[in-house]
C-alpha cells in the first residue's frame, strides 16, 4: 500500500483570491505582522501498486486527467510506502 | 521572517465529501487501485515575529479565530525560519 500526497498550488502570476481574502481578514483582526497568505490543496490518496515507479506514473496521470488544471496549477507528488 | 504552514484536515468521523467524490471520479476513470482519498487544506503564511515561540502563539490564535473551525477541523502548525 502506498500513501500518495499530491500538493496542488497555483502557478506564478495566477491570482489566489482565497489567500488574498484570508490576508485581509487576518489584518482586520489585528494580525498586522502577516505579509502574505497562499493557499495550497493537498489530495491524500491511499492506493495499491506494483512499485513506487508504477504508483508515481499513475499519480501523474490522475493529476493530468482529474486532480489539477494544468493551465493554472503546479503540483508536487510525494509517495510514502506503507 | 517566518514561513508558517498550517495544515487543516478533518477530524475523525467528519465526512469529507470532496474526497469521496474525487475517489468516485478516479474509479470511474479506471483508477481502481485507489482505495481512499482525503483532502487537506494548507494555508501558507509569511509573517514577521520576535521569535519562533511568538510566531507559534500568533498562528495558534489565527487558527482559533479565523483559519479553522474547531468543531470539525484538526490543524498542525509548522514554522520555518527564513
Q: What's the layout of helices and strands?
A:
2 copies of one chain form a homodimer.
Chain A: E1 2-10, H1 17-28, E2 34-47, H2 52-67, E3 73-81
Total DSSP helices of chain A: 2
By CATH, the architecture of chain A is named 2-Layer Sandwich
Give the helix/strand class of chain A. Answer: alpha+beta
Tell me the overall shape of chain A. elongated
CATH superfamily of chain A: Phosphoribosylformylglycinamidine synthase subunit PurS
Number of DSSP E strands of chain A: 3
What is the domain tally of chain A?
A: 1
As residue ranges, the low-confidence spans of chain A are none
CATH topology of chain A: Mth169, Chain: A
What spatial order of strands do you see in the largest sheet of chain A?
Answer: 2-1-3
The level-1 CATH class of chain A: Alpha Beta
Fraction of residues in β-strands of chain A: 35-45%
Detailed description of the structure:
Two copies of one chain form a homodimer. Chain A is built from two helices and three strands, in the order βαβαβ. Chain A has helices spanning 17-28, 52-67, and strands at residues 2-10, 34-47, 73-81. A three-stranded antiparallel β-sheet of chain A has the order 2-1-3. At the A-B interface, α1, β2 and α2 of A face α1, β2 and α2 of B.
Pick out its properties.
homodimer, 82 residues, alpha+beta, Mth169, Chain: A, three-stranded antiparallel beta sheet, 2 helices, 3 strands, 34% helix, 39% strand
